[in-house]
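ligand=phosphoric acid mono(formamide)ester
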Amino acid sequence: MKHFTGLRDLGPEGLESILAKAMAWKGGPHPKHLVDKVLGMVFFNPSLRTRASFEAVMARGGGSSIVLEVGSGVWKLEDRLGAVMNSDRAEHVREAVPVLSRYVDALAVRTFAGGADDDLDHADPVMSAFRELATVPVISMESAREHPCQGLADLMTVRETFGATPRLPVTLAWAPHIKPLPKAVPNSFLLTAAAAGCEVRIAHPKGFELHPSVLAEAGAFAQSAGGSVSITHDLNAALQDSHVIYAKAWGPATESGLSAEAVKEHSEWMTRESHLGSARPDAIFLHCLPVRRNVEVADAVLDSAHCRVVDEAENRFHIQRAILDWIFGS
Ligand code: CP
């Protein structure tokens, strides 16, 4: 039984075959490869793109989906082993996940980081419990550690513009926000670009380091793929000759809250037109969305010809179609 909750589930060959299938199927007729398949989608947190694109994939492929929003018409779920369940969490994942497995052919799960403990978040407790307890494949729709479908859609968008150029310079640029956001998206862009052999430059203010386990995994991926990973606190230096500017807000290395004052302090990190000037003239701008205009990224960047965020979001559909095909083994 295959799961897809992190990039490591694919390996280098799997990564390339998913990308190849997604790109080959894009623009063609919808294959009816999911007839009679039912996808159970469990959301602990909100979504626009992920929910809509997975539902569209299932419908276009001839299958169907069941959407469960935890705590909204569905019991709140407890995941801690040994918990005394005297809070508002009425059901434990130890029952809920095996039960759901009896109804569907695969379970897709969205669960954000708790934010109180970086080490705990990077152990990915909820997604790990689903993997352990499900008797059907489990797919990540973003977890505390990774957003692997997003990472693959990001790489597909890069490849559509620049092909599979070895050691392509790409910059992951920290962005300010009104609150500390999870690190799953930057983790997945880093891991996927590293696994594809890119020269990945991470730029962030001091105190916003990504987790050591992710940096180590990305370093290993880069080494075997012929790429590299570097870290700087100088955004303009990172952008020199970069083909890709990937902006993303994320919280500090340990949860201490990112106050409005801290945003003001780091407002120079908002991606602006001047940053485009530091990169290559044909550089593309990516962001996973949703994006807070004029906090994370200036209008002038999002409305420029460099911006590919809508193509990037479309590619979620194509990647997830290929992922489900891989999961179900057609
Ligand atoms: N990028 C992304 O996952 O978007 P949603 O949170 O809207 O699903």
